[in-house]
Design a protein that fits this description.
The complex is a heterodimer of chains A (216) and B (199).
Chain A (H helix, E strand, L loop, with lengths): L4 H11 L5 H9 L1 H18 L9 H13 L7 H4 L13 H20 L11 H32 L4 H24 L4 H25 L2
Helix pairs in contact in A: 2-3, 4-8, 4-9, 6-9, 7-8, 7-9, 8-9
Chain B lengths: L12 H9 L3 H23 L2 H17 L10 H19 L14 H6 L15 H9 L3 H12 L4 H8 L3 H28 L2
Helix pairs in contact in B: 1-2, 2-3, 2-4, 2-7, 3-4, 6-9, 7-9, 8-9
Classes of the chains: A mainly alpha (216), B mainly alpha (199).
Amino acid sequence: MTMTCKEFERDLPLLEGVHSLEQDAHLRSCPACSDLVSDLNAISQQARLLEPSVGPSPRVWNSIEITLRHEGLIGQTPHEQVLRPIALGWRLRWLLPVAAVLLLAVGVLVRNRRAGEPFVATQQSSVSNSAGSAAVTSEAALMASQDQQLLNTVAARMPSMRDAYAADLRTVNAYVHDAEQSAHGNPNDEVSQQYLMNAYEQRAMVYEMALDRSLP
Amino acid sequence: MTDAIKPGDKLSEAQAIERAKQGDAEAFEALYNLHKRRVYSLCLRMTANTAAAEDLTQEAFLQLFRKIGTFRGESAFSTWLHRMAVNVVLMQLRKKGLPVVSLEETMESDEETARKEPGGEDRRLAGSIDRLQLENSIAALPPGYRMIFLLHDVEGYEHNEIAGMVGCSIGNSKSQLHKARMKLRDLLKMSRAEKATRP
Protein backbone atom coordinates (compact mmCIF):
# COMPACT_ATOMS: atom_id res chain seq x y z
CA MET A 1 0.00 0.00 0.00
CA THR A 2 1.51 3.34 -1.08
CA MET A 3 1.87 6.23 1.31
CA THR A 4 -0.73 8.97 1.17
CA CYS A 5 -0.03 12.70 1.30
CA LYS A 6 -1.68 12.89 4.69
CA GLU A 7 0.60 10.18 6.07
CA PHE A 8 3.65 11.84 4.56
CA GLU A 9 2.82 15.25 6.02
CA ARG A 10 2.08 13.70 9.40
CA ASP A 11 5.61 12.31 9.54
CA LEU A 12 7.29 15.38 8.03
CA PRO A 13 8.07 17.25 11.31
CA LEU A 14 10.09 14.30 12.57
CA LEU A 15 12.07 13.53 9.41
CA GLU A 16 14.81 16.19 9.59
CA GLY A 17 15.85 15.53 6.01
CA VAL A 18 16.13 11.76 6.28
CA HIS A 19 13.46 9.89 4.35
CA SER A 20 12.54 6.24 4.33
CA LEU A 21 12.24 4.32 1.05
CA GLU A 22 8.48 4.64 1.25
CA GLN A 23 8.70 8.40 1.80
CA ASP A 24 11.19 8.78 -1.06
CA ALA A 25 8.85 6.85 -3.32
CA HIS A 26 5.98 9.14 -2.38
CA LEU A 27 8.09 12.21 -3.08
CA ARG A 28 8.95 10.90 -6.54
CA SER A 29 5.30 10.34 -7.37
CA CYS A 30 3.71 13.39 -5.73
CA PRO A 31 4.59 16.85 -7.13
CA ALA A 32 2.69 18.64 -4.36
CA CYS A 33 4.61 16.96 -1.52
CA SER A 34 7.84 17.30 -3.48
CA ASP A 35 7.23 21.04 -3.82
CA LEU A 36 6.36 21.28 -0.14
CA VAL A 37 9.62 19.63 0.95
CA SER A 38 11.60 21.77 -1.50
CA ASP A 39 10.00 24.95 -0.16
CA LEU A 40 10.59 24.06 3.47
CA ASN A 41 14.22 23.22 2.75
CA ALA A 42 14.68 26.50 0.87
CA ILE A 43 13.27 28.45 3.81
CA SER A 44 15.57 26.67 6.22
CA GLN A 45 18.62 27.24 4.02
CA GLN A 46 17.86 30.92 3.50
CA ALA A 47 17.39 31.38 7.23
CA ARG A 48 20.92 30.10 7.86
CA LEU A 49 22.25 32.77 5.54
CA LEU A 50 20.62 35.63 7.45
CA GLU A 51 23.39 37.87 8.67
CA PRO A 52 23.15 40.33 11.52
CA SER A 53 21.82 43.47 9.89
CA VAL A 54 22.41 46.51 12.06
CA GLY A 55 23.99 47.14 15.42
CA PRO A 56 22.50 48.81 18.50
CA SER A 57 22.71 52.57 19.04
CA PRO A 58 25.78 54.01 20.81
CA ARG A 59 23.76 54.49 24.01
CA VAL A 60 23.96 50.74 24.66
CA TRP A 61 27.74 50.75 24.99
CA ASN A 62 27.62 54.01 26.96
CA SER A 63 25.21 52.43 29.41
CA ILE A 64 27.31 49.28 29.67
CA GLU A 65 30.51 51.22 30.27
CA ILE A 66 28.93 53.40 32.91
CA THR A 67 27.49 50.41 34.72
CA LEU A 68 30.78 48.50 34.60
CA ARG A 69 32.63 51.52 36.02
CA HIS A 70 30.01 51.95 38.68
CA GLU A 71 30.40 48.30 39.67
CA GLY A 72 34.17 48.57 39.68
CA LEU A 73 34.63 46.03 36.88
CA ILE A 74 36.49 48.58 34.78
CA GLY A 75 39.59 49.83 36.50
CA GLN A 76 41.61 52.96 35.78
CA THR A 77 43.80 52.72 32.72
CA PRO A 78 47.45 53.71 33.03
CA HIS A 79 46.55 56.97 31.27
CA GLU A 80 43.89 57.80 33.80
CA GLN A 81 46.19 56.88 36.67
CA VAL A 82 48.72 59.59 35.78
CA LEU A 83 46.12 62.35 35.89
CA ARG A 84 46.58 64.64 38.85
CA PRO A 85 44.20 64.16 41.71
CA ILE A 86 40.98 66.06 41.40
CA ALA A 87 40.83 69.36 43.26
CA LEU A 88 37.40 70.93 43.16
CA GLY A 89 37.52 74.68 42.99
CA TRP A 90 34.90 76.76 44.77
CA ARG A 91 33.30 77.56 41.37
CA LEU A 92 32.46 73.87 40.82
CA ARG A 93 31.13 72.93 44.26
CA TRP A 94 27.55 73.60 43.10
CA LEU A 95 27.64 70.51 40.86
CA LEU A 96 27.88 68.12 43.82
CA PRO A 97 24.53 69.14 45.28
CA VAL A 98 23.07 68.92 41.74
CA ALA A 99 24.11 65.28 41.52
CA ALA A 100 22.69 64.70 45.01
CA VAL A 101 19.38 66.32 44.00
CA LEU A 102 19.20 64.08 40.95
CA LEU A 103 19.56 60.97 43.06
CA LEU A 104 17.09 62.28 45.66
CA ALA A 105 14.58 62.95 42.89
CA VAL A 106 15.01 59.37 41.75
CA GLY A 107 14.25 58.12 45.25
CA VAL A 108 11.13 60.27 45.51
CA LEU A 109 9.83 59.20 42.11
CA VAL A 110 10.45 55.53 42.78
CA ARG A 111 8.72 55.75 46.20
CA ASN A 112 5.73 57.51 44.64
CA ARG A 113 5.40 54.89 41.94
CA ARG A 114 5.57 52.05 44.40
CA ALA A 115 2.79 53.75 46.40
CA GLY A 116 0.68 53.62 43.25
CA GLU A 117 0.81 57.32 42.48
CA PRO A 118 1.09 57.89 38.74
CA PHE A 119 4.08 59.79 37.43
CA VAL A 120 1.66 61.93 35.42
CA ALA A 121 -1.58 62.57 37.29
CA THR A 122 -4.71 60.70 36.25
CA GLN A 123 -8.06 62.12 35.24
CA GLN A 124 -9.38 61.93 38.78
CA SER A 125 -8.32 65.45 39.56
CA SER A 126 -7.88 68.25 37.07
CA VAL A 127 -5.92 70.19 39.67
CA SER A 128 -3.58 67.23 40.16
CA ASN A 129 -3.32 66.92 36.39
CA SER A 130 -1.98 70.40 35.88
CA ALA A 131 0.26 70.12 38.95
CA GLY A 132 1.67 66.79 37.73
CA SER A 133 2.21 68.04 34.18
CA ALA A 134 3.84 71.19 35.51
CA ALA A 135 6.13 69.04 37.65
CA VAL A 136 7.21 66.99 34.63
CA THR A 137 7.84 70.12 32.54
CA SER A 138 9.76 71.89 35.28
CA GLU A 139 11.85 68.76 35.90
CA ALA A 140 12.79 68.56 32.23
CA ALA A 141 13.66 72.25 32.23
CA LEU A 142 15.78 71.79 35.34
CA MET A 143 17.66 68.90 33.76
CA ALA A 144 18.26 70.93 30.59
CA SER A 145 19.54 73.85 32.64
CA GLN A 146 21.86 71.59 34.64
CA ASP A 147 23.19 70.01 31.47
CA GLN A 148 23.95 73.41 29.98
CA GLN A 149 25.79 74.52 33.10
CA LEU A 150 27.85 71.32 33.08
CA LEU A 151 28.76 71.76 29.43
CA ASN A 152 29.68 75.40 29.99
CA THR A 153 31.98 74.32 32.79
CA VAL A 154 33.58 71.58 30.70
CA ALA A 155 33.98 74.01 27.80
CA ALA A 156 35.73 76.50 30.05
CA ARG A 157 38.15 73.90 31.42
CA MET A 158 38.68 71.56 28.46
CA PRO A 159 37.02 72.86 25.26
CA SER A 160 38.02 69.80 23.26
CA MET A 161 35.85 67.57 25.47
CA ARG A 162 32.70 69.66 25.37
CA ASP A 163 31.20 68.04 22.27
CA ALA A 164 31.90 64.53 23.52
CA TYR A 165 30.05 65.18 26.77
CA ALA A 166 27.22 66.88 24.93
CA ALA A 167 26.83 63.66 22.94
CA ASP A 168 26.98 61.58 26.12
CA LEU A 169 24.28 63.71 27.72
CA ARG A 170 22.04 63.40 24.67
CA THR A 171 22.48 59.64 24.79
CA VAL A 172 21.86 59.25 28.50
CA ASN A 173 18.91 61.68 28.43
CA ALA A 174 17.34 59.60 25.67
CA TYR A 175 17.85 56.56 27.87
CA VAL A 176 16.23 58.35 30.81
CA HIS A 177 13.31 59.37 28.61
CA ASP A 178 12.81 55.80 27.35
CA ALA A 179 13.06 54.41 30.88
CA GLU A 180 10.55 56.96 32.17
CA GLN A 181 8.11 56.08 29.41
CA SER A 182 8.49 52.40 30.19
CA ALA A 183 8.10 52.93 33.94
CA HIS A 184 5.09 55.18 33.41
CA GLY A 185 3.43 52.57 31.23
CA ASN A 186 4.27 49.74 33.62
CA PRO A 187 4.11 51.21 37.13
CA ASN A 188 4.02 47.80 38.79
CA ASP A 189 6.79 46.29 36.73
CA GLU A 190 9.93 45.96 38.83
CA VAL A 191 12.14 45.57 35.77
CA SER A 192 10.94 48.90 34.36
CA GLN A 193 11.51 50.58 37.69
CA GLN A 194 15.00 49.14 37.90
CA TYR A 195 15.78 50.39 34.40
CA LEU A 196 14.65 53.84 35.45
CA MET A 197 16.91 53.71 38.50
CA ASN A 198 19.78 52.61 36.26
CA ALA A 199 19.07 55.44 33.83
CA TYR A 200 19.22 58.08 36.57
CA GLU A 201 22.37 56.55 37.99
CA GLN A 202 23.98 56.66 34.60
CA ARG A 203 23.10 60.29 34.19
CA ALA A 204 24.76 60.99 37.52
CA MET A 205 27.78 58.99 36.33
CA VAL A 206 28.10 61.17 33.20
CA TYR A 207 28.24 64.20 35.47
CA GLU A 208 30.83 62.53 37.65
CA MET A 209 33.00 61.57 34.69
CA ALA A 210 32.68 65.03 33.16
CA LEU A 211 33.87 66.56 36.42
CA ASP A 212 36.73 64.06 36.80
CA ARG A 213 38.10 64.36 33.30
CA SER A 214 37.69 68.02 32.51
CA LEU A 215 39.68 69.27 35.45
CA PRO A 216 43.42 69.85 35.12
CA MET B 1 30.37 33.48 10.29
CA THR B 2 33.75 33.88 11.97
CA ASP B 3 33.92 35.53 15.31
CA ALA B 4 37.62 35.80 16.12
CA ILE B 5 39.56 38.94 15.32
CA LYS B 6 42.11 38.17 12.63
CA PRO B 7 45.81 37.98 13.57
CA GLY B 8 47.42 41.33 13.11
CA ASP B 9 44.32 43.12 14.31
CA LYS B 10 44.63 45.48 17.17
CA LEU B 11 43.54 43.01 19.85
CA SER B 12 42.72 39.34 19.40
CA GLU B 13 39.64 37.96 21.10
CA ALA B 14 41.75 35.85 23.47
CA GLN B 15 43.84 38.88 24.43
CA ALA B 16 40.74 40.99 24.90
CA ILE B 17 39.24 38.37 27.21
CA GLU B 18 42.35 38.21 29.37
CA ARG B 19 42.61 41.98 29.56
CA ALA B 20 38.92 42.34 30.31
CA LYS B 21 39.44 40.03 33.29
CA GLN B 22 41.92 42.63 34.53
CA GLY B 23 39.38 45.42 34.14
CA ASP B 24 40.70 46.91 30.90
CA ALA B 25 38.03 49.21 29.44
CA GLU B 26 39.36 48.94 25.88
CA ALA B 27 39.22 45.17 26.08
CA PHE B 28 35.58 45.23 27.17
CA GLU B 29 34.79 47.58 24.32
CA ALA B 30 36.64 45.40 21.82
CA LEU B 31 34.64 42.34 22.88
CA TYR B 32 31.44 44.33 22.71
CA ASN B 33 32.16 45.64 19.21
CA LEU B 34 33.07 42.17 18.03
CA HIS B 35 29.78 40.58 19.06
CA LYS B 36 27.25 43.40 19.37
CA ARG B 37 25.62 42.97 15.95
CA ARG B 38 24.90 39.30 16.30
CA VAL B 39 23.54 39.65 19.84
CA TYR B 40 21.43 42.64 18.88
CA SER B 41 20.08 40.92 15.77
CA LEU B 42 19.09 37.93 17.85
CA CYS B 43 17.29 40.13 20.40
CA LEU B 44 15.66 42.23 17.67
CA ARG B 45 14.35 39.24 15.76
CA MET B 46 12.98 37.73 18.95
CA THR B 47 11.30 40.88 20.25
CA ALA B 48 10.59 42.81 17.01
CA ASN B 49 11.14 45.99 19.05
CA THR B 50 14.31 48.09 18.81
CA ALA B 51 14.12 49.59 22.31
CA ALA B 52 13.52 46.21 23.91
CA ALA B 53 16.26 44.66 21.80
CA GLU B 54 18.74 47.32 22.94
CA ASP B 55 17.84 46.81 26.58
CA LEU B 56 18.24 43.06 26.24
CA THR B 57 21.54 43.48 24.40
CA GLN B 58 22.78 45.66 27.21
CA GLU B 59 21.65 43.16 29.83
CA ALA B 60 23.23 40.22 28.00
CA PHE B 61 26.61 41.95 27.77
CA LEU B 62 26.46 43.12 31.37
CA GLN B 63 25.77 39.57 32.57
CA LEU B 64 28.62 38.32 30.41
CA PHE B 65 31.10 40.93 31.60
CA ARG B 66 30.18 40.37 35.24
CA LYS B 67 31.03 36.69 34.82
CA ILE B 68 33.99 37.05 32.51
CA GLY B 69 36.35 36.18 35.31
CA THR B 70 34.91 32.67 35.30
CA PHE B 71 35.39 32.05 31.57
CA ARG B 72 37.91 29.24 31.15
CA GLY B 73 37.74 28.70 27.41
CA GLU B 74 36.11 25.28 27.47
CA SER B 75 33.62 26.49 24.87
CA ALA B 76 33.84 29.28 22.33
CA PHE B 77 33.35 32.72 23.82
CA SER B 78 30.75 33.52 21.20
CA THR B 79 28.77 30.41 22.15
CA TRP B 80 28.86 31.41 25.80
CA LEU B 81 27.68 34.93 24.97
CA HIS B 82 25.02 33.65 22.64
CA ARG B 83 23.49 31.34 25.22
CA MET B 84 23.48 34.19 27.70
CA ALA B 85 21.64 36.40 25.21
CA VAL B 86 19.04 33.72 24.56
CA ASN B 87 18.50 33.24 28.29
CA VAL B 88 18.11 36.97 28.82
CA VAL B 89 15.46 37.11 26.08
CA LEU B 90 13.62 34.09 27.43
CA MET B 91 13.62 35.51 30.96
CA GLN B 92 12.23 38.78 29.70
CA LEU B 93 9.49 37.06 27.71
CA ARG B 94 8.53 34.99 30.75
CA LYS B 95 8.45 38.08 32.96
CA LYS B 96 6.08 39.75 30.55
CA GLY B 97 3.92 36.65 30.51
CA LEU B 98 4.38 36.14 26.78
CA PRO B 99 4.28 32.58 25.49
CA VAL B 100 7.78 31.29 24.87
CA VAL B 101 6.44 28.23 23.09
CA SER B 102 2.99 27.98 21.59
CA LEU B 103 1.22 25.61 23.92
CA GLU B 104 -1.79 25.35 21.70
CA GLU B 105 -2.02 23.76 18.33
CA THR B 106 -2.86 26.13 15.53
CA MET B 107 -6.51 27.00 15.08
CA GLU B 108 -6.42 25.39 11.66
CA SER B 109 -6.41 21.68 11.20
CA ASP B 110 -3.25 20.08 9.90
CA GLU B 111 -4.95 19.38 6.57
CA GLU B 112 -5.89 23.02 6.08
CA THR B 113 -2.40 24.17 6.98
CA ALA B 114 -0.74 21.74 4.61
CA ARG B 115 -2.99 22.35 1.64
CA LYS B 116 -3.70 26.05 1.90
CA GLU B 117 -2.24 27.57 -1.21
CA PRO B 118 -2.64 31.23 -2.12
CA GLY B 119 -4.17 31.89 -5.47
CA GLY B 120 -2.01 32.09 -8.52
CA GLU B 121 0.53 29.89 -10.14
CA ASP B 122 1.88 27.33 -7.76
CA ARG B 123 5.66 27.50 -8.11
CA ARG B 124 8.44 26.45 -5.84
CA LEU B 125 9.94 29.04 -3.53
CA ALA B 126 13.50 27.83 -4.08
CA GLY B 127 15.55 30.56 -5.71
CA SER B 128 12.96 33.28 -5.14
CA ILE B 129 13.23 34.02 -1.42
CA ASP B 130 14.92 37.31 -0.71
CA ARG B 131 16.32 38.35 2.63
CA LEU B 132 13.91 41.20 3.30
CA GLN B 133 10.86 39.09 2.50
CA LEU B 134 12.11 36.40 4.84
CA GLU B 135 12.87 38.88 7.65
CA ASN B 136 9.40 40.42 7.31
CA SER B 137 7.78 37.01 7.31
CA ILE B 138 9.72 35.92 10.39
CA ALA B 139 8.58 39.09 12.18
CA ALA B 140 4.99 38.19 11.29
CA LEU B 141 5.18 34.77 12.92
CA PRO B 142 3.46 34.17 16.25
CA PRO B 143 6.01 34.60 19.07
CA GLY B 144 6.19 30.90 19.95
CA TYR B 145 6.84 29.81 16.37
CA ARG B 146 9.28 32.65 15.85
CA MET B 147 11.33 31.67 18.86
CA ILE B 148 11.77 28.05 17.81
CA PHE B 149 12.45 28.96 14.18
CA LEU B 150 15.08 31.53 15.13
CA LEU B 151 16.81 29.24 17.56
CA HIS B 152 16.92 26.29 15.14
CA ASP B 153 17.11 27.60 11.59
CA VAL B 154 18.79 30.97 12.15
CA GLU B 155 20.96 30.40 15.21
CA GLY B 156 21.67 26.72 14.62
CA TYR B 157 20.67 25.16 17.94
CA GLU B 158 19.66 21.51 17.99
CA HIS B 159 16.23 20.42 19.19
CA ASN B 160 17.57 18.93 22.41
CA GLU B 161 19.26 22.28 23.22
CA ILE B 162 16.11 24.23 22.35
CA ALA B 163 13.98 21.95 24.48
CA GLY B 164 16.27 22.55 27.43
CA MET B 165 16.31 26.31 26.96
CA VAL B 166 12.61 26.94 26.46
CA GLY B 167 11.29 24.15 28.64
CA CYS B 168 9.47 21.97 26.13
CA SER B 169 9.90 18.45 24.78
CA ILE B 170 12.06 17.63 21.76
CA GLY B 171 8.93 16.50 19.93
CA ASN B 172 7.23 19.81 20.69
CA SER B 173 10.26 21.69 19.40
CA LYS B 174 10.19 19.73 16.13
CA SER B 175 6.46 20.23 15.75
CA GLN B 176 6.69 23.97 16.40
CA LEU B 177 9.55 24.29 13.91
CA HIS B 178 7.56 22.52 11.24
CA LYS B 179 4.56 24.74 11.82
CA ALA B 180 6.76 27.83 11.73
CA ARG B 181 8.22 26.80 8.39
CA MET B 182 4.74 26.02 7.02
CA LYS B 183 3.50 29.42 8.14
CA LEU B 184 6.52 31.10 6.57
CA ARG B 185 5.83 29.25 3.34
CA ASP B 186 2.32 30.66 3.27
CA LEU B 187 3.52 34.17 4.08
CA LEU B 188 6.24 34.09 1.44
CA LYS B 189 3.88 32.80 -1.22
CA MET B 190 1.34 35.49 -0.37
CA SER B 191 4.06 38.10 -0.51
CA ARG B 192 5.15 36.83 -3.90
CA ALA B 193 1.56 36.76 -5.18
CA GLU B 194 1.00 40.36 -4.03
CA LYS B 195 4.17 41.48 -5.75
CA ALA B 196 3.09 39.80 -8.97
CA THR B 197 -0.26 41.63 -9.02
CA ARG B 198 1.25 45.09 -8.51
CA PRO B 199 1.42 47.25 -11.63
